[in-house]
Amino acid sequence: MRLPPLNAVRAFEAVCRHGSILKAAEELNVVRGAVRQQIATLENHLGRKLFTRDGRRLVPTVQASAFAAAAGIAFDILQRAVLELEGAEQNRIRLGVPSAFAVWWLMPRVADMQASVGDTAVEIVPMTVVEPLQMHPELDAVIMGGEYRPAPGITALRFMEDEFGPVSTPSLAATLSKDPAAMGALTMLASRSVPKLWDEWFAESGTRPVVFSRVQEFEDLLLALGAARSGLGIALAPRASIEDDLERRHLVAPYGFISRPSGYSFCCRTPDAKRPAFGALSGWLLRCGTSG
After folding, report:
1. What are 215-229's pLDDT values in tens digits?
2. Percent of the chain beyond pLDDT 90?
3. CATH number 3.90.226.10 given to 6-85
4. Residue 110 binned pLDDT confidence (cut-offs 50, 70, 90)
5. To 5 degrees, how large is the angle CA 270–CA 143–CA 126?
6. Within 10 A of 45 (CB to CB), how many other CB atoms are there?
7. How far apart, in whole angstroms, are the C-alpha atoms of residue 27 and residue 138?
8. pLDDT by residue (tens digit) across 179-213?
9. What is the pLDDT of residues 75-87, one digit of tens each?
10. 62-85 and 6-18 helices, crossing angle to 10°
11. Domain 90-292 - what CATH class?
12. In the chain, what are the domain boundaries?
């Protein structure tokens, strides 16, 4: 069987992964015209169109999306096979972590984590917007919160349950009644990195959505929680990210917490899951997650 040109497949996979010719060109360090040419080459080879147009956007067909996912897995396998053939030792794991989770849960435990994986260095990469691993070829693994969805070629370990709920300073919480509608008098602190978090809490807690007097958005949940600690308003927080603040009474949860169905998952590429360092890291996460 005559395989398509690998450069064309690589450009196509990058476009599908990023949803953008420009971003694919930046990753591949080429101009946009070169990416378009590679797409045309691949379409000519396969004898079919791979994208439809939605206004100015290119949307992959259903078959093209499946092909892109398979191509991404194949490139990952090929890259790791080359490393093994060259005898290169993987002595580093680049781990993408939600920034708030990294600061308040992972970093206080980082010395114990590093000891668990021995000589392999774990490099923590804070992520403002947590995206699936297949969107980040530069990372070796990611920790996903409620955003996680199963994906081909990715092994995921759910290592910790979590809860979430509205949090504020004790002084602001003292102004609230037992009815969550009372939160409307406060400023809602939201994060663009998890834009649906408040909606999810209203739906999953069975609480009628609150009309807030004011809404202030931040780029990162870490910033929104910092604003809550300063008394600016009320934020929606995963409990695992603010355990220390709760213990020190910097923040309180006036309406308690409810369980998040997805919890937290450690996600890595399936071939890497068999490597000792990845096994040690996932085992450590599972021990810490179940013990609190």
Report:
1. 999 988 889 999 999
2. 59
3. no
4. very high
5. 125
6. 14
7. 10
8. 999 999 999 999 988 888 899 899 999 999 999 99
9. 877 877 776 676 5
10. 120
11. alpha beta
12. 6-85, 90-292
Query: Are both 6-85 and 90-292 of the same fold?
Result: no
The rounded distance, in Å, linking the Cα atoms of 278 and 275 is: 5
User: Which of 56-70, 94-108, 125-139, 271-285 shows the lowest per-residue confidence on average (mean pLDDT)?
Assistant: 125-139
pTM of the model: 0.70
HEC letters along the chain: CCCCCHHHHHHHHHHHHHCCHHHHHHHHCCCHHHHHHHHHHHHHHHCCCCEEEECCEEEECHHHHHHHHHHHHHHHHHHHHHHHHCCCCCCEEEEEEEHHHHHHHHHHHHHHHHHHCCCCEEEEEEECCCCCHHHCCCCCEEEECCCCCCCCCEEEEEEEEEEEEEEECHHHHCCCCCCHHHHHHCEEEEECCCCCHHHHHHHHHCCCCCCCCEEEEECCHHHHHHHHHCCCCEEEEEHHHCHHHHHCCCCECCCCCEEEEEEEEEEEEHHHHCCHHHHHHHHHHHHHHHHC
